[in-house]
Amino acid sequence: MVEANRTVPYIFDLQGNVIVRNDLPPAGFSRWLTNEKYTVAKAVEAGILRFDEAVARYQMTVAELNEWIAAAKSGFKHCSPTLHLAGSYEEVVKHLDELTPQPRVFVHGKLTLTVDYPRACILVNGQEVQMRLIRWRFLKLLALNAGTVVSKRSFIRLIKGRAQHKLIDVHICHIRNQLKVDKEETDADSLIKTVWGRGYVIPSTA
Description:
By secondary structure, the chain is of the alpha+beta class. The protein folds into 2 domains: 11-79, Winged helix-like DNA-binding domain superfamily/Winged helix DNA-binding domain (Arc Repressor Mutant, subunit A, Orthogonal Bundle); 89-201, Arc Repressor Mutant, subunit A (Orthogonal Bundle). It is built from 8 helices and 10 strands. It has helices at 34-45, 51-57, 62-73, 89-98, 133-144, 152-156, 165-179, 187-191; strands at residues 11-12, 18-19, 82-83, 104-108, 111-116, 121-124, 127-129, 149-151, 193-195, 199-201. The strands form 3 sheets. Strands 3-8-10-9 form a 4-stranded mixed beta sheet. It has a 4-stranded antiparallel beta sheet with strand order 4-5-6-7. A two-stranded antiparallel sheet has the order 1-2. The longest helix is centred in the C-terminal third of the chain and has 15 residues, at 165-179. The protein is elongated.
């Protein structure tokens, strides 16, 4: 990080820090929170990083980068952070499976969901629910990043081989159904919220 001057192109991040090209997130960066997204968007706007270069460097789509730039213009005031995982299927799955913090409990209406990371299982109102490995990983990723929107691209990283976004929706639908206390109950649907055009999130306040 450098002092602002007239010879080195720079921007300010959301904390007011001076950012030059070398301070930008590296290629393959995966923990995309608000400040990092804002920094990349402003760097593109300022010409520090070319638009096409940013798309290639961060393995993102044109639509995603345009969304970041639009949100940056409002200071991300109305944009919750979004998680974008990078890396191969093997790398992402290995890292996720190795994360085993203490169990976390989410209470939402009539639903009490316990995500037991060390045992790789879930409990719904105290009863263990069997879940396919791929869906356990989906739910684990959401729970570990509660309050952060997990992009569909991140979920695709958890599927071996080629997959379309529609398959993500199908898995999330099955997860919601498995969390329901009864068929008429809707708390599971609202616990895992859909953020249109971006992905899914479990609120951190649940």
